[in-house]
Structure formats: C-alpha cells, structure tokens
Q: What sequence folds into this?
C-alpha cells in the first residue's frame, strides 16, 4: 500500500536525522487531515483500520458532497454512498467522469482499479426488492478490491431456488445475505454453509415489518450459529465486514 | 351436539304453546349463564361460536379456579389453561380425578372423551424448548375432539430434520407451527406445503428476541403466502383456530 | 391443474426410458425457474404450496415490474399487488389489456377466469377507510378462484349494523375481518360465529394507533378463541390463508 | 365539607381583625402541610382539587407507609393504594382497626363513612381476572362518597352476557369499563350507551399484550366517540375521574 | 330530540295496530342505515349513544367524502373531521355553503344551529402550535350544542400565564387540556381544579417526543388524580367526552 | 438587565405611594404578557428563568410566526428556531433586516448585540451531517450572549482527529457534544475532560438508528460519569443549558 | 489534589535526570492501573476527568465487589453504588467500618472527609418514593465534596408545596430534580428558576409509565428551556454532572 | 474431521456395490439424527455447517438437559450453554466429570481436547460486569478448537486502559468486543484495528439501557465501518462467528 510506504520513509528520515521531530509532526498532520471547514478529510484512515475514508452523503448538502468529492478525487479513488439523484446530478456536473448507480445510490470515481484481493464474496438476496442494498455492497467490495458476485431472488418462499444455487454458495469465502420480510434466508443458509455469514436486514416489507425491525430482530435471534448482523439496509457495512475477513487470507503469519 | 338438541326442544315447546315466552326466557337464562358472583359461566357459548367455555387461570386465585372448575365439571368436560402448579395442587385436592400436565400447564377433567372429528392436525415445533406450547395445543385439540400429533425439534438450523418429516407434514389437514428464536420454520413450511398453517411464535429466545417479539414480527412479515398467526405462546388459540377449520370438513353444504 | 398434468407426463417419459435423467432435470429446471437477471420467476410454485407466483411491486421499479409482468403473462394469469399508479401507468402502456384497481392497488391480467372453487369467503370491513385492503383481498380471491363478497362498514361503534348482517356472515365458509382503529370487530364476530376467521389489522387510525399497531395487538390479544391474524394491511395474505382453507373442502380424503 | 368550613372561619377572623395576617399564614401553613421529613402530607389538597391526599404505597417502605397512615388517621379517613400484603401486615399491627382488601390491595381507615353523593357509578369488568382493579376503583369510590356497584365478567367473547346487563348499564351516571386482552368492551359499550365512560386497560393478557399495552392502545384508538382512558390498572384514577364528574350533579349553577 | 320523537310515534302505531311488525321493521331499517355501497350511514346512532354520525375523512377519497356529505346534508347538520384542503375543495365545489376551517381541518354544514346545552367547556392549550387540535374540539362542541371557549398558550414554561387564567378555568364545567411536548399542563391544572379534565396529548414536539408519545405517556402517568386521556391530537374525541358529561346536567333524575 | 431595572422602579413607586396596588398590577400585567389572540407573548420570562421568549416555529403557520416576530422585534432581539425556508421567506418579506440561517434553520433579529458573558462554550460535532444542529446551538448562544465556537467532524471513527483538538476542548468552560450514529463521542470526551458536558443526540443515521433513538439511549447509558443529555437534535436546548451554567461564573456569592 | 502533586514530582525527577524515562513509565503504569484479573482499577482517573473511580456493583458478584473495595480502600475514600443488601453484608463482614445506606443502596468508606467545594446543590424530589435516588445523589455529592441538601415530596399535584420552597430553590447553585410519574416537576422548576437543572427520571410509576420511560421522554421533551437529563434512576450521574458544574466556580480564569 | 471420514467410506461402499442404496440411507439416517422423543439430536450437523450440536439449556427442564447431555457424551465432547446452577447440579449428579462454569453458565464434557486451529481470537470486555458473556465466548472457542484470550475492563471511560492493550489487540486474528452501557468500545476499536470485529452488546446497564437495547442499537449504528453484531449477551454466537472466520485460514484454496 502506498500510504504505508510514504510513512516508513518519513520515519526513517527522522531516525536518520534528516528531518527533525517538529518538521515530521508538521508533515504528518498535513497529510493526515485535510480541513475543509465543515469536514476534516481523514486521508490516513487506511493506515489505521484499513478502510479509505468514504463520503456518507445522507444529511449533507449537494454542495458539501461536491466539495469533499473533489478533494478526495485529487488523492485517488472515491466512494460516496446514500447519494440522492439530486446530489449526483450536482457532482456529475462538476466531475463528469464520476459514475452514479441509481439502484445502489453510490457515486464513484475510479482513478485506478483496486488490485483484486483473495477470496470470493457472494452476495445473496432474498428478493428483487433487496437489489439496491446488494448493489451498494457490490460497489463497496469493488472499491475495496474484493471480488464479489450477486445471487439474487432465492428467498425461502421458493426454497428450491436456493438449493439450485448451493454449489455456488459453498464456494464462497464469505457470504453476505440480504433479506427483508422475516429475514429467514440467513438462518437457512447459516444451517447449510460453514463460511462466515454477514446478514443484512432490509427495510423491504410493510406493516408489522416496521421498516426492517422484523428482519433485524429475526436475524439477531437466528437459530443458526455464528451469523453476525449489520444495520438495516447497510450494504456498505457488510462489504467492509467482508473485507476485514478476506484481508486475513493473504497474511503470512496465519497461513503457514 | 347436545346443547343444540336441548335448545331445539325448548323452542318447540314454546311454539307448541307448552311453555310461555317468559318461562322460556327464564329457563334459557338459567341454563346459559351461571353466576358465581365473580364469574359468569357461559354454558351455551358452544351454541354461538362452537367452543365450550374454558378457564383462563392466569390472574385468578386458586380458590376462584377451583370454584369455577367445580361448577363446570358438573356440566361435562373441563379445560383450564395457564394453570400454575400451585393452583393445580389446590384444584387436585378438591377433584382428585382432574389431570394436570405441568409442561403444557393445562388442567383437565374428561367426563366423556370427545368423539374425534375429521381431519388431522399436525403440531410442529422448532425446538425442544417449544414443547410446552405444543402440549397446550395438543390438549386443547383433544378436548375439542380434533385428532392431533406432535412433530418436535425440526427447526431450520438443521433443515434435513424437517425434510425427513415432509411426508408426515403433507398428510396433515391443518398445521400448527410453533417456533421461537426468529420463527423461520413457519416461512419454510409455508413455502413447501399447501395446507392451512397457523403459526405460533414462542417466547423462547433471549436478548433482542424481546420475549417473542422477534418471532411474532417475523411470522407476520413472512414471505410465504397465507400463513396466519396467533398470540405469542398461544397454543390454546392455535388449536381453536385449527378446530374452526377442521369442523368445515364434515359439513354437507360445502362437501358436495 | 395444468402444471401437475405436465409434470406427470414428464416423469412417465423418464420411467419409460423415453427421456434420461439428465434431460429430465434440464427440462424441469428450465420450466421451473425463469431467470430475468434481477428476478427468478418461480413458475412451479403452484406445485409446492398451491399458490401461483405473485408480483409484490413495492420496492421494485416500474421497469422491473413491467418486465416480470410480461414474462408471467406469457404463461397465464398475473396478479401484481402494492402497485402505485405510476407503475400501473407504465405497465398499462405495455399491456393495455391489464386491469388496474386504484383502491386495492392491484394490477391483473386474466387470461382465463380461474374456475371457481368451493366455499364462500366473506370479507367484512369495520369502516369505509378499510375498503382498499378489502379490495386487495377480493381481487386475490378471484385470481385464486375463491368466491368472495365484501360486507363493508359494520364496525362496533354501531353494532346493530353488524347484527343486520349476521345471517350473511353465518353462511360464510371463511371470514376475513378487516379493521383499523382498535380492531374490536374481530373479537365481536369471533364470539358470534364458529367459522374460521382471519383478522387483518389496518393502518387506519392516528396517534396512538401507531400505523396499525393498536389493531394488530388488539387482534392478537383478542378474548375470542381461535382468531388468527395476518400482517397489517395484508389483504393479499388473508385471501391466501382463506384459499388454504377452502381448498380442503373438495378433497375426498377428508370429506367422506 | 369540613375543611372549607374551617377555612372560612379563619379568613373571617382575619377580616374582623381578631387575627393578624402573619398569624393566619402560620395557622394555615401548619394545617396545610404536615412535614414528616420524607413526606409532606398535604392536608388541604381537598380544598384545591377536591381529593383528600391518598397514600400511594408503591416504592415506599412498610415503615414509611405506617408513619404516614398514622398521621393521616389522626385527621380523618385514610386510603392507601397498591399496598402489598407485607406492608398491610405492618400497618395492621400498628392500627388493628384498619381494613385491608387483598384483591384490590387497598388499606383503609374509615373514621366516618363519607356521606354518599349523587349519581351512580357502575364499574364493568370484561373478565374475572380484572376484578382486582375493579375493587381498587370501588373502594376509592366509597372513600370519595360515590355510590358504586360492580358488574363483572361481561366481556365481548360472550356478548349476550353484556346485553343481559344493558338495562343496568343504562341507568348509570358514569361507567368505568375495565378490560384487559384487546379491551374491546369499552368500544362496544361506548357505541351503546350515551353516558360518560372512563376506560381502564388492565395488564391481564400475555404475549403481544405487553402488560396492558394492547388494551391501552385499543381503548385510545377506539372507534366509539368520547371514551376517555386512564393508566393501565389504574382503578384509583378512574374512580377519581368519576368523582370529578358526579360532583357536578349537585351544583346549583349548572342544574337550573 | 327529533329522532326520539319519530321513533316513539312509530312504536305507538305498532302498538295501536296501525302498522304491523314487519312494516315497522322495514321503516326502521330504512331510516336507520342508508347504504351507499362503500358506506353505511348510521342515521339513528344518536338514539343509541347520543352522537350523530360524523365523517372521519382520513383514508377516504374526496369523492367518497363528497358523496357521504351530500347524503347526510339532506338529513340535517354535518360534521367532517381530518379533512385535507384537497378534499375540502372538492366538497365545497359541490356544496358551496359548507364551511371549512383549515386550522382544525373540519368541514361543516349547519342547517340549524344546535340549541346550546348546559355547562361550559373550557379548552386550554399549552402553546400556539396546539391550536389546530383546539379548533377541532371547539367545532365539535358547537355541532354537539356545547358552549365552549378556548384559552390558548398558557403552558407551564411560563406558569404565571396560567395563574392569570385560573379564575376563568375554575368556572368551567369541564376542561379540555391540550398539550404537546411533555404534557405537564394537564398535571398542573389537575392539581388546582376539581372539575372533570379531559387531557389531549398532541404531536407537537420533536425527537424523543415521538409524535405525541411523550405527552401521551406523561398524561397517563400524571401524578394528579382523576385526569382521563384521549388519543393523540383527538380534539374531536375530547369534545365528545365533554358532551357525555355536560349532558348529565339537565337530567332530572340526578339533579334532585 | 433592563427588565429587572424597570421592575424595581415600579415596585419602589408602589412602596412610596406614588402608585397604588391596582395600578401596579395593571402595568405589570400589560408589560408581562402581550396577547395576540393565538399567542401570549411572555415578555418578562427573562425575569423568571433568565431566558427571553423564543419563537418555536414548528407547527405554526408563516403568518403566525410573522406576527409574533413583529411584536417581539418591537421589544428587542428576536430568535426563532425550526424555521422552514417557506416561513423564512414570508418573515423576510415583512422584515428584510432579519437574518436566516438555512443550515441551522434559525431566523434572528439583532437589535443590539448581546454583551458577551463569561466562559467559553465549545460545540463539538462527530460528523459534517451534525452541523445543522451545531448551527442552531451557536446562534442560540450568540443571542444569549455566550461566546461559542464549533469544532466539527471529530467522531470516534478517526479518533486522532479528536486528540488533535484536545487542547482546544480542555480550555472550554462548557462542552456541547453533538453526535448521531451511536453517539460514542460523548462517552469518549466525557472520559477525557472534566468540564460540564451537554450531549445532543442527532437524527443522523439510518435503519436501527431509529431517527436518533440509538444515539439518545447510548448517551443516556454512557459509561462516562456526569454527562447530561437533551432532546434529539435540540441544539437550542443545549445552548440554554450551557447558558444556565456560564451565568454562574460572574455571580459574586459563588466566586469568592 | 494529592494525585496531581505526586505526578508533578515524578515528572520533575525525570526532568532532573534523577529517574530515566523507562523507570518513570513503570512507576506511572503501576500507579495508574491496578490489575485484579477481572478488573483494572483506574487509580488516576481523577487526573483526567476529575472523578475518582467508583464501583458500579450491579452485575458483579459479592466477592468481586469485596475485592475491589479492599484495593481501593487502601488508596483512600471508596464509593460503591447499586449495592444489594446481600453484597453489602459480604463487604461489611470484611470491612466493618464501611457504611451502607439501604435506601440509596450505596456503600462507602470515608478515610478522610472530602473538603467541601463551592456552590450549593439542592436535590428536589417529587414524591417520597423518589427518595432512594435522592440518597444516591446526596451520597455521591458528599464523596465528591459538594455541599448538598434534599427537599423532598414537592411534586406538582400539590404545587403550593413547591412554592413554599421556592426561596430555598432559588439559592441553589445547581438543582437536581428527581421525579417519576410524568416528571412534570422538572418543567415547572425550569420555568421558575434560572440555575442549571439536571433532571433525573425515576422508575416510580406503573402501567404506561413503562419503568421510567414516561418520565424520561417527558423531561427530554420539556417545554422549559435548558433542562438536561440523565438516565432513569441515575442519582449518581446527576451528582457527577453537578460536580462538573460546581467545580467551575473556584477557577480563577473564569471568575475575574 | 472424523465425521467426514466415515461418510466418505460409506459412500464408497455404496459405489463399490458393497452396500445398496436403501441400506446406506438407513445407516446415514440413524447416524444423523438420534431421536429422544422430545429432541432430535443432530449428530451430523458438523458436516453441514461445521458446528457440532450444542445444548441450549434455556427453557429445557433439568431432566431433559441431563438426558441429551448423556446421549451426546457417548459420541464425544459436549457443550451446554445457559445452564442454571440447578440444572448443572442435576447433570453433575449424573456425570460427575462434567465441568460447570457458574460465571459463563456453561457445562462441558471434554472427551478429547479439540486440536487447536489457526488464528488468535481476542475477547475484549468493557467492564467487569461483562465477564460472564466473555466466559461463555471463551468456553465455546475452546470447544471449537480456537485459541482465545480475554482482555477485560478496558471500556472507553478510561480510554488509556484500552491504549495500553493496543499492541495485544492488533495481534489478534479476530476480535470479539463485549460491552454493555452505550457499547462505544466497539466503535473505538473498530476505528483503530483492521481485523474482523464481532460486537456483542450486553444487558449490563439500567434504565434507558432497556436490557441491552441501547448497546445493541449503538453497535448497529456504529460510525466505524465493518463491525458486525450478534444478539445481546450472545457470547456463544460470537465465538461461532469467530470460528467461521478462523477456519478460513488453513484452507489451501485461499492461502496460495
């Protein structure tokens, strides 16, 4: 990773006496946080928890998103999530080479395609209506360099559609299972597959579904062991959790 | 049914002038409601909605339950539900031939075994911990004259246990599906079987299960069509719903 | 039923050696699931749980609904529920012979009127505002071949309106009781009629009604025995539950 | 009322110069609030909102209740509510002439029977299990001088039991309707009777009843007009509300 | 009351043999319920619980409201509540003499001003934002013939504004107290005034107010005795409850 | 303070006999409450709890806000909160010198800049999306004469951004900590700084955040001692709480 | 403060070369955190946020509490909260000079009475049942060196009891207002007093009070400006919040 | 794994014709599910999702647990969770070599120590009160053959205790973060470490913590990316999720 390389050099310069401590502090601080007034862009986040900073567009004005997008774009790839079409239009007018996915509501700028990591993430949805969340997850995976594919519409109301896909599912390194309604798909897959499963409840449903609460509680109370859950409709978070897992695969200290 | 027979005769006597209206009123009223002060026993309920009155023991003192039990026992079979062991002891000391099931918490007096009706009710449970509710349902079925059997511990965490029982399930007239945790069993069976399904969420689970709320919401939001739900832990109600259905089978006007 | 006929023939061909197992698998799989990329249409669902697949339009784009509608239309009757007027306009522009009911928000294509089954379903509403849900239920009944009529606006605030209709209600095979506010209508009818009752809470009400929660909890906690409940505003589900019941009537093994 | 008499004399003494303002203040203050350290007994509350102070025993230690009971007993009648049997034992050991009702959990000392006011309050319960709340209401009525009777166990599951009592109910000045489960009794009575109705939801029920929430929401969302509701299990509050109403009857300025 | 007069004559005709029972039934039934297909107008509701039927416009289409309005208008005064401006426009285009109050969202037709009853209802609001609910209450009072005035904006944040109005409040027969936020106004007035108090929580507030839940729970849990509560924002219901109370004042059997 | 000065003179006039009691009452009452019909403007509120009256615009019509704004403007500075852009336009058309902040949704008229009090309030936000609430707080501080600055976007996902600002935070007299999502920022700052901390949960977040509930519960349950919390999104309330604290600093009786 | 003194000396030794950095680190680490295996006692917490570590006994076994109590006792004063009588017995058997308050459930060891700070904290309770929480707050104040007194039982149901105490309340530096039921006391005091107010909702109440939820929501939604709230029953937290405020009073940089 | 070995041999026998299909079916079925009447022990679960069946003791009687324990003990290692001390006593009386951990409430029989897998799981707790859940997690890890250690009592109220342990945390393969109160520890660690994080909310807390709800919602809404969550107090589930992850490490197809 580029960031780590630069950091190591800087520290070496300090150690060798080519730079004094105060100068080093100054350089580091400038590199790490770019202050736009309303927002502090955290450029070195990747060094700490392994994720580049992402623009969470909800609650931000189109102008704010555009400004942050521009600054981050100058440093490399950019991912913005929860982008309304109105905000997308504004940003696209500034940066016509950005790419907007209206179903997943993501806006991306790919300066350089992330080099694909190890492992295979399979994103499974219970119904067509869950596809938006699946798209958010897949785009996030791509930006994090995780190979990912979507298997859609295999909910338990027609359980043979799921069984048709079992071979595919069993080959996954990590499974992201996205379901609204009662969220039973996570339990069923959890009982059949021994891989890490990240369940995403969606707000698809009505009445006593209470905007995703039914699926959320169901997944948390699942009778299948070892399923973990992220927030309702949080395709982005599920992809990040998958990334935390697949990153383990290439690490020497575990694999030998 | 006995009750209907008696009623018809009475009305005939009035029509024939053998009894005047006021006398008839008196007789009917006395027969219908027996007033114990704290409780009005509704002896003719069976005439209206087809269910004999049942003692719901929760919130009643042992003495109250004992008194009502005694009065109803003089008219035929008795079923009391939600009976604590303390109340059961009191009633058994008064009527040693009553029968207490500590798992299902029912107390019964069977004067005459109800003649078995048509149809076959299969009571399915997801786990061993749901057995108490299944017992309440089975005892209620028996008192209503519905043949019923229990298939226990076939939850979706080990879905092949369910598939082993599919033949059995497909032969049912009505299915009562009892599950705690996320309640996914109802959805899976609902997708595989075309018979009436009454789902009973149970309070088995912990944490975000919120005493049955997760299973309840999950069953209501089920992606399988045509599942209907009764209250949490309500084995009694599920059996009554099954009874309303199986009673249809013997009725001439529908069957030809 | 057509589907079953075709299936039997296919299996016979395999048995007779006219088709080998692999070919049979291929044919079946193709027939069963039609994969549109975003959606897997489950054409054989009817074989398993007795319901043809239905388009749940909420959360789907007009284009997705149009595409699925077109594919299913090629195989027979189509029912889409929760269709907004905007989506309806799009589909009608593609298939002008489709039929949209704005009150029940259903969109249908009737290739061949389903042959009417046995039994009589009566749909009862507490108030005029519950009519949309009743329409969804009635249209679903029609598509499933269940004779159904609506009795509207007989809520308990004017209980004599209900009593005027008792004769009508008593002749039903199954009752679907639709009520918002406190949902008391289900309890009252449940105490007066001995037929299967499927209660549908509606989101009609305000304030402490919490979008149907008051009616839902009230119906679940009903003091009348054997009422079962479907999700808030779920007229479709209630009709399916009624269908699971009325289908029992024509079956030989129960009726003799 | 005694209190008002004393107050008038005092003010007259001040006006006549027999007592100066500071002395008057002193006397009044002493009379009004008796300070026990942990509790300030509000002896003149009756002058303001018409209710004598009542001991709410929940969350108070037996010793605290005993001490307050003793002080109030010295000034006249005493009513304590939510008294556990343990606290009752302690107070009875101090004041053996106090009277404990274990069902309604009230503890009373009647120095002088309150002279009965006008109007007739009828307390109606849906089931036997609601009797405890009805007792609390009746005892409170008695202490406030309101004639009150209980009609118990007339819930809507057997609606003819209610119709048998309609004549009785129509003669009431005020109705207190106490019901657990779905609380439908309040709606039904509200549609049949034109008198003030105070609905009391009770915690009788289980599962999705959520300790009275179902009945509370149902009564608030009732389709019958003009029903007002007090807190779950609050028989005391319902009696006070009835008292505020029946007190109007004797007042000259309204009645002519 | 007109309705009662007509009914008495009819019964007398039957008694005198001028009309037979079947004819009488026919006349009554026709008079009582006017069936518009979607709605059964309950013309005799006033005979039973004292309230004329009112149009609850929420969830009804403008056309439905217009149709019902027209039919009821032919029989006398009309009150419709929860009327959106869009529906109001439609009805006003049909019946230009109807009167719409956009703040209280009521639509009325006054054929004959109801003769004012006894008693004085004072409607108190905590803040200006609660005025819409107060208007709904006042219009309902007027249509029921109850004299009513509004005292607005006297919430406890400036408690002296309340004390300035105490004299006014003490002269009321019934108080309707309308408050959002924490709803404390009901408790404070309840501690100062001995008249019947109907508390109306409003949805005014934000965040943890949860659309009226905070005020509702606060009023139910009020430390002041004998306050009863109606649904959130339910000015109409509060007026009906006041009406049930003030009607008592003119009745002979209580007042002497 | 001006108000107190005027009041003291008035009382002196009464004491000196230059004005009689009734006249004094009249003057005071007029000064204190200005009655606009729908609203009683509480001009002397500052005398009681130290805050000038503020216009809470939510639920008020543009015209009402304009009218109140005009009356208060005649007496000095004005602050209106929760002002929609539509209402702002209306008021600005009447009073073009008013100032609207669309992010914080405040509308102000500054007749005379409040003289700055003691102490330093630092407003900290977890993310850019919390800035609107921070603006409401800062504007309120300014109108109350409290020096305040904003430190934005230092949430715990990049905890070093917070540590960079620790020096700044430690110099504060009072900290207002504004955070959505899980609200963890309040706990972390609470563990590091010993100054008064007022936590403001915001509605920024989605899914299981439930419009601020997650942050609210998290802040209330914080493991850091002595954090107190105001309502969701309540920047105004937080500033008032800060004002109650900083006002203590100049008071003689505490400081020596 | 002792801790700061020791720390300064240590750093001076390092600066003077009397101790090297590694030794200093070792000493500091040892002093700061004492590791008991299950618990890390944070002895220097006082340096960071001004509060000595306190034992939160809920969820800890008597043995664990005893062990932690013993270790902290060796370093000075100790405060344990939420101590059951069973745990208290165990600890008292080990350290007979510890002091247990069963009402407030605190267990203390006072090695040296904390020197009293500036300011005056007044703890106000609405009812006698809130006294336990008030005791917890007062004991915490004492251990933190804040002068504090309790004014109990002045709830708004008898508002003159509150007005009798206004003079007392106005002299407070900080007010802790403790109330269950609807929690209206906080709003009323907030409208009358201009000092910092920390509101503590209590779990005193029943039914729709939902274990403190009604009071909590009411206090958060209070119409009085600038009230801040701590968790239900959290007397300890309220005292800490008061401490954060009163500590400001003696600080030079603010007071001149 | 042993199970897989046996299965392969069986299938080979069938392929080689040494066993016919029906015999194979019989053997498999017998091996897979052992039916105790109330419970079907799923002996081959390990083949499907990689977890041996575990006894969830909540809601089971001591006798049932004892019986299942005995049967599973005959096949190898046994783990029972949520075991009350009463049940433990019963089972220990039957199998004195079983091992009970009262803090974690697990009961185990270790026939053969599971051979330790790859990777290192670090279990972190915020407070001493969370230790029970940590014990459940650690025991589960041990039974699944995952090396695991506990780092306890490093909550964010004393954030330096956490920083002292960072080196330790960074060396983990997977982190299980267990926290009650507001659950902020998960967010802070998530921002600092790039490994998979499984967050476990606990029911430690009170009042507005609502038995773990505050921590659960906070963790789901966490601002740190890629944290996934299991049910409240579910140490067992967290260990299983960790197991699903660490099992990936030894698999050839990923590691090269």
A:
């Amino acid at each position: 990773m580029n960031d780590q390389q630069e950091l190591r050099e800087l520290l070496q310069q300090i150690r060798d006496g080519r730079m004094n401590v105060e100068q080093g502090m100054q350089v580091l601080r400038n590199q790490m946080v770019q202050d736009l007034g309303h927002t502090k862009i955290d450029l070195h986040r990747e060094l700490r928890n392994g994720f580049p900073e992402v623009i969470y567009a909800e609650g931000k004005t189109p102008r704010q998103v555009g400004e942050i997008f521009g600054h981050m774009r100058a440093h490399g790839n950019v991912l913005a999530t929860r982008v309304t079409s109105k905000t997308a239009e504004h940003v696209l007018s500034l940066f016509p080479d950005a790419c907007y996915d209206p179903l997943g509501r993501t806006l991306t700028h790919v300066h350089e395609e992330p080099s694909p990591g190890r492992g295979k993430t399979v994103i499974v949805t219970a119904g067509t209506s869950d596809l938006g969340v699946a798209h958010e997850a897949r785009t996030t995976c791509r930006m994090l360099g995780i190979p990912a594919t979507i298997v859609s519409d295999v909910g338990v109301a027609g359980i043979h559609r799921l069984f048709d896909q079992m071979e595919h599912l069993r080959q996954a390194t990590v499974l992201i299972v996205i379901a609204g309604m009662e969220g039973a798909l996570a339990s069923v897959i959890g009982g059949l597959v021994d891989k890490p499963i990240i369940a995403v409840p969606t707000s698809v449903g009505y009445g006593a579904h209470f905007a995703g609460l039914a699926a959320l509680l169901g997944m948390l109370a699942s009778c299948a062991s070892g399923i973990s859950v992220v927030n309702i409709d949080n395709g982005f978070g599920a992809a990040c959790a998958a990334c935390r897992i697949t990153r383990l695969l290439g690490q020497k200290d575990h694999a030998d």
About this structure: Chain F touches chain E through 29 residues (CB under 8 Å).
